[in-house]
Each structure stands twice: as C-alpha cells, then as structure tokens.
Amino acid sequence: MYRVTVEPILFFGMLSVVMYSVISQEYVYNSLANSYGLHDHNLDPCNATSVSPATKALSAKVSAASSKWTLYLNIAGCLPSLVITIISGSWGDVVGRKPPLCVSIFGLLVLVIIYMLTMHFQLPLYVLLFGRIFSGLCGDYTAVLGSCFAYLSDTSTRRTRTLRVAIGEVSISIGGVTGSLISGVWADAQGYVTPLWLLVAGLCSCMLYTVFLLPESNLPEVDSVIWKLRKLCSPEPFVGLWNVLRIETLRTKYIFGILFCFFLEICIFDGIGTSLTTFQLSPPFCFSNTLVGYTVALFTGGFIFGILFLKLAKSRISEKWIVTIAVFSNILSMLMLIFARSIWIMFVGIGIGCLQGAATVIFRSLMSKLVESNEQGSVFSLIASSEAIAGLTSSFMFNGLYAATVATFPFSIMVLAISIDVVILVVFWFMYGKVSQHVLTKMDEQNSNLISDEDENVET
Q1: How far apart are CA 423 and CA 116, in angstroms?
Q2: Pick the CATH number of 7-459 from 3.30.420.10, 3.40.50.1980, 1.20.1250.20, 1.10.287.110
Q3: What is the per-residue DSSP string for 191-249?
Q4: What's the count of helices (H) and strands (E) in the chain, helices before strands?
Q5: Model pTM greater than 0.70?
Q6: Which of 90, 99, 221, 245: CA 20 to 30 A from 230?
C-alpha cells in the first residue's frame, strides 16, 4: 500500500523555490529599471511606434543587468551547496535521512526571511546574496532533493523505484506550478513581500513535519544528536561516496554516463527557466507579473504531463524511447520559442515541451538501480550535487549568453538548448544498452541469492 512520506516536502520545497525565484527576478528587474530611469518599462519599450532608440537601448541595458544579477544570485547559492550537498547525502547514509533534511529546510527558511527584509526595507540588491549564500551553506534545495529521493529509494524496490521516483517528480512539478500561478498574481495585487509570508509558514510546517511526523527510513546505529554531529565532522560521509565510485569500475562508468545526461537535462531546464522571466519581461513581449507567472507555471507543470506519459508508456515502449520522445519534445518547444512573436505562440511553444520531465525520472531511476541500498544517500548526493553544478553552469551559459546577445539575437538561448538536447540523445543512446543489461544482471543476482537463502532455510 502506498504511503505519503516526503512528497509534501518535495511539493512545498519546490513551491518555495519557484516563488522566491520568480518574485526576486521581478523585484531585481523593476529595481534596476527604476535605478536606470526606465519609467513605464512595461509599456514604452514595447511601443514600436513611439519608443525612441535611446529607450530601446536603455531597456536592453536593464535586461542585461537583470540577467547578470540572476547569475550572481545563482552563483552565491550554488557554489557553497556543491560540497555541502555531497556531505549531507552521505551523512544521511550514516545518521538517517531526517537530520540533513532539517538542515537544508532551515537554510531555505533563512533565505526567504532575508529576501523579505530586503524587499520591505528597500535594501541594496547585494543583501539578497547573503540569503543565497546561507542557504547554499545548508545545502540549498538540491540537498532537499538528495535526501528526499534517497528516502524514496529506501522505501522502494528496484522494480518499483521508477514509479516511486516519478511520484516524487510529480510532487515537485505540482509545487512548481502552484508557486508559478500564485506568485505573479499575488505580487501584482499585494507587492513582493506578502507572498513570502506563505513560504515562511510552509517551511516552518515542513520542519515540524520532518522532526515529529516523518518516520525515519534509514535508522542510525545510535539515536543521539551529539553522535550525529560527530559523524558529520568525521570522514565517513566522504568515505561513503568514495566507496560508491571505486568499488566497481564498470558501474562507475555507467553512473557517470547517465549522470552526464542528467546534468545536461538540468542545465537546459534551469537555464531556460531562469532566463525565461527576463526574456518575457523584455521587448517584444513585456509580460506583466501575472502573465510571467502563468508561463512559468506552464513551463514547470510540463513535468506532470511528462510523468503521466511515463506512466502510460512504460509498459509499452522501452525507457530509451521514452527519453528520446521527451528530448524531442523539448527540441520542438525551443524551435517554437525561437519563432514566437505573440503571446499565444509563446504559450504553445512552452506547452509542446511538456514531456521533458520523463527524461529526468528515467535518469534518476537508472542511477539508483545501479547501486546497493546502503549507497542510496551517496548516489543521490552525487545527483543532487550535479544539479547544483548544473544550476551554476546554466547560469553562466544561458544568462551570460542572453546578456551578451539580448540586443542582437535574444533567441540564442533556445539554440543553445537544442544543441545540448542533441548531445543528450547521442550519449544516452550509446550508454543505455550497457546500463540496462548491468541493472538486469544485478536484479538476477539478487533473485538468485534470495532463492539460495530460502533453500538453506528449508533444509535447516
């Protein structure tokens, strides 16, 4: 019987990330527009008949500066979280999943509070960096993902893992859609600060839920806070990850091959996601905050349709073809966005890419199936760390490229995404046959061991 465990945490964690990301990007854009003297920037730069060349140039300058600030914020959060995420996942293999989960949730809570204070008191933009840095030092949302998916792996078998991971992805997607839908509307109606109170209340609830209601999936040897802190300061978390990488050379190659595909897929999702808001606020679209929220909701919610497609297609076609269809879905989406010149084409283009979420589920599931049950925290910390690196890399690639080409060819980020999708297809098709055969061999060995154990018990 299916039991709800970490899905509420995945849901509200993603809702928080989407809401504070969208609101902060809109706040940064509008703050810079005011500081540069670009008045009525949602209207004048888009009025092709009356806008002056100087206004157009100033609008491009604001967009470029806003994209750079998005890059700075991502760097501030991603860099410290790289090491912390690896430590927290392997630490969870030793002390249980709940301690690292609580630490990362607390980091998100402090981040939201700092954002609220900055927006309420009109503090300098660099104060936002302190919130991202503190959250990164606690593992950021990538550590939440690593702990939660390790928990889901603890409570599932190799045969049910893909579905279990898919349900976790659906929780993330629903949280992203909800955050996108309410963030823009709420910000338009009551400003930037009020919506963040919801995040404070929700993250506090997640902390209480984790501490008092969530059952531990990986019981530690000693149930002592002091002992758990000592393990955090010991070399064991690093040793656990090292054992995953060194025990079996062939398996390590397969893990890194699939991890590379996963990394590139997250680069596309994060890169387009962080650039899309600035892209839509700028000419020729000049979307309102509400409309930006709707498009981000559609972009994030595509994962729901991808998971439904995975559920329906998994028993009929192989995982290789599911990933192929998902990647082609994103390629068609990017092509539509390149030629988008109106609002409805923008929505259609984003909607076409709704199947891309199926690929990340397959990648997570395959890597989880390649390791043993006592290595799940280490491998998911590796996956989560790659997500943090992908977030940082995509910021340099997509936001940097957009800032450099916004005045000449702002659609260059879509061309970059298509190029990366082609690389994913090539690498995955090369790796999949070997990886799936290795997984089947592992499952056969486990079944043989179980049968042998049962025979010995019968003879005894």
Answers
A1: 40
A2: 1.20.1250.20
A3: TTHHHHHHHHHHHHHHHHIIIIISPPSS--S---HHHHHHHHTSSHHHHHHHHHHHS-H
A4: 17, 0
A5: yes
A6: 245
